[in-house]
């Protein structure tokens, strides 16, 4: 029996349908140390390790005029050769050349006549290295699932289970969300919905949102997890707080260098967060949404970090976390066709309320090998859509945090922003080593540099 597309996944297709310049594919890139094996051997190995994910052999059948629920069906003409491509970076094969190839590959739309995924084998890297770029449509898997699939492709693997995606055909039957009858939760949800709606409808003063083209730029930053953890201990913050504060500083410097004055609403950021509990698992939707104004107007690095912590806490305590989960769950109550149409309509609106998106991706817990080659980097690649000209994903792997940024080609800011993020983390590390705690009039602990 064919499996129907869920309303949330139909929404991802609707967003893509709303703008011919948008691709809703997400990516995870593994850089491998060692000589690249023969292509036929790579293809055979990947085919064997992908066999545990039935969705990778299915295509999506949509009905005329968008009527009826789209269905996943086995592709009778499936040929893995259509999905495993090879490409080489130009000389000298450094990060800039690799990032250029990633940007090009991620800008190409997946062919909806076939299963919605690709793996690109990338050669020509310096220092006797090569890479694998897994590219999957978001209606199949989210960013966390795509990184999880990379573990399934590795020599570590999942045993006989091979690759297992949260949305593959072996999952439990879909359950419709159960309405929450607790009136206290209604109040929190209503307050959070008002905050989310206000943020979406109020235009933000920022050059970082607007129409996007069909081309992309990609860049990545790497910071030592030990450095980030030191900052966390010194200032009682989380890893997410540190990365978002560093990202805020980078965006701030970007605007100032262009003669713009950062305003309190210049960096309203969509932050997907994981939810927990049985209700989320039954709804098969483990994502909620926050929409904080990151403190781009703040010039002091430590005050900015503490403000990030405070604003995220306020967004959660104020009901945005519950409201975001409620909104995502409510999407599951819509007929699939309506969900797709609604997403298309939203995608065509020239929204100016949200400036960027920043998501955290759970990375592999242990160092990986693929075909005997060590995986030395794992880079996340988020999509961009709905007038968001930059998207950021954060992934931890092998003692490092890797931050991947996809940007519209015309913005020409990806490298500048990722280098700025690395600089901002370094500045926070330096301050964490020479802290003198004081108290400000809000009661927040501050640190003044020596």
Automatic annotation (TrEMBL):
Q: What Pfam families is this protein classified in?
A: WS_DGAT_C, WS_DGAT_cat
This chain belongs to the protein called Diacylglycerol O-acyltransferase
Signal peptide boundaries: none
Q: Which species is this UniProt entry from? A: [Mycobacterium] kokjensenii
As for family, the record states: Belongs to the long-chain O-acyltransferase family.
Keyword Repeat attached: no
Q: What is its EC number?
A: 2.3.1.20
- Name the top EC class: transferase
Recorded hits in InterPro entries, A to Z, give:
Acyl_transf_WS/DGAT (IPR014292), O-acyltransferase_WSD1-like (IPR045034), O-acyltransferase_WSD1_C (IPR009721), O-acyltransferase_WSD1_N (IPR004255)
């Amino acid at each position: 029996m064919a499996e129907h597309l869920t309303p949330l996944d139909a929404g991802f297709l609707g967003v893509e349908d709303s703008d011919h310049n948008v691709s809703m594919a997400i990516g995870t890139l593994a850089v491998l140390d060692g000589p690249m094996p023969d292509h036929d051997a790579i293809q055979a190995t990947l085919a064997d390790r992908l066999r545990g994910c039935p969705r990778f052999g299915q295509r999506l059948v949509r009905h005329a005029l968008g009527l009826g629920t789209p269905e996943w069906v086995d592709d009778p003409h499936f040929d893995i050769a259509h999905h495993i491509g090879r490409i080489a970076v130009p000389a000298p094969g450094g990060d800039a050349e690799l990032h250029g190839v990633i940007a090009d590959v991620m800008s190409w739309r997946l062919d909806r006549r076939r299963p919605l995924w690709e793996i690109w084998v990338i050669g020509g890297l310096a220092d006797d290295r090569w890479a694998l770029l897994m590219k999957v449509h978001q209606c199949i898997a989210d960013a966390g699932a795509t990184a999880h699939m990379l573990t399934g492709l590795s020599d570590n693997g999942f045993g006989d289970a091979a690759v297992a995606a949260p949305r593959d055909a072996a999952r439990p039957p879909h359950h419709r969300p159960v309405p929450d009858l607790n009136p206290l939760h209604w109040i929190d949800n209503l307050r959070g919905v008002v905050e989310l709606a206000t943020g979406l409808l109020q235009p933000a003063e920022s050059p970082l949102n607007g129409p996007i083209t069909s081309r992309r730029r990609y860049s990545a930053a790497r910071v030592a997890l030990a450095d980030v953890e030191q900052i966390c201990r010194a200032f009682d913050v989380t890893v997410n707080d540190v990365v978002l504060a560093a990202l805020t500083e980078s965006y701030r410097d970007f605007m100032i260098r262009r003669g713009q004055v950062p305003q309190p609403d210049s960096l309203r950021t969509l932050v997907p967060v994981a939810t927990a509990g049985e209700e989320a698992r039954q709804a098969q939707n483990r994502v909620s949404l926050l929409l904080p104004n990151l403190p781009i107007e703040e010039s002091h690095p430590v005050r900015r970090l503490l403000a990030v912590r405070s604003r995220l806490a306020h967004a959660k305590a104020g009901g945005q976390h519950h409201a975001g989960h409620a909104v995502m769950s409510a999407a599951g109550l819509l007929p699939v066709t309506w969900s797709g149409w609604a997403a298309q309509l939203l995608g065509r609106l020239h929204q100016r309320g949200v400036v960027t998106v920043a998501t955290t991706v759970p990375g592999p817990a242990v160092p990986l090998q693929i075909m005997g080659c060590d995986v030395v980097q794992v880079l996340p690649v988020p999509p961009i859509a709905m007038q968001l000209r930059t998207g950021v994903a954060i992934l931890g792997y092998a003692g490092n945090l890797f931050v991947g940024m996809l940007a519209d080609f015309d913005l020409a800011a990806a490298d500048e922003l990722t280098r700025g993020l690395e600089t901002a983390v370094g500045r926070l590390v330096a301050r964490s080593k020479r802290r003198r705690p004081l108290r400000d009039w809000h009661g927040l602990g501050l640190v003044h540099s020596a």
